[in-house]
Amino acid sequence: MEVETAVPAFIGYTEKALRGTKPLWNEPTKITSFAEYLLYFGAQPPTKVTLQPDGDIVRDADRSTQFFLYASLRLYFDNGDGPCFIVAVGSYTDAITNGKSANALSQKPLEALRKEMEPTMIVVPDAVLLEAATDNRDVQQQVLQHCHDMQSRIGIFDIFGGGQARSNDEQDVHLGHQRLSHPRQRFLQLRRGLLPVAQH
Fold it and tell me: How many domains does the chain have?
């Protein structure tokens, strides 16, 4: 029997979380296609954007209405990848009204994932949309602790502020991570439960 060795668990905000009449909030749900994602978790987020005066080019996006889980799943399945787990932590509407929460993106979903043996990777795309780098770091630390406890999975992280313009100085978010990217150093930091995060 073939065993999946790369099964990500995606954590984030969705339009809905419903299978028939059963709510799926903070319940790890295995899906095998983007069609299943749409069926259980709904459509893309209602992101508000500002366009350039002379055309259709996006100048700016309202951060409070941005969510990355939907696009991450679309790209994941477009790339031909297989089964994965979704843990929906709240609706777009609630997050827009009350704000995105580091606790919502980590505590309950990670606790729920302790009962699942299949996932080998934890991915939290919406963590980079939290208000502060410290909130993002808190989510990453909790994911690392979860991976350490489970001993069967890894965390995959986006760089907080990675979309900022490059400054090529001490405050450059990319260089801040690059300085800490030596494989042995990263290994030691993971073993110690630490995480390289650029200073902001």
Answer: 2
Query: Tell me: the pLDDT tens digits for 123-181?
Result: 999 999 999 989 999 999 999 999 999 999 999 998 888 777 767 776 665 544 443 33
Is residue 1 assigned to a domain? no
Round to whole Å and give the CA distance between 21 and 175.
48
Taking the CB of residue 156, how many other CB atoms lie within 10 A of it? Answer: 13
What six digits make up the tokens of 60?
């700016």
> Could you tell me if 154 and 175 lie in one domain?
no
For 66, the token pair is 């941005």
Q: How big is the chain, counted in residues?
A: 200
Distance CA 70, CA 39 (A): 12
Residues 69 and 126 in one domain: yes
Amino acid residing at 16: K
Range of the domain at 18: 8-158
Tell me the per-residue pLDDT of 20-66, one tens digit each, with 9 for 90 and over: 999 999 999 999 999 999 999 999 999 887 777 766 666 677 889 99
User: Is 40 domain-assigned?
Assistant: yes
Which tokens sit at 157? 């992280």
DSSP letter for each residue of 47-76: --EEE-TTSS-EEEE-GGG---HHHHHHHH
* Threshold 0.85, pTM exceeds: no
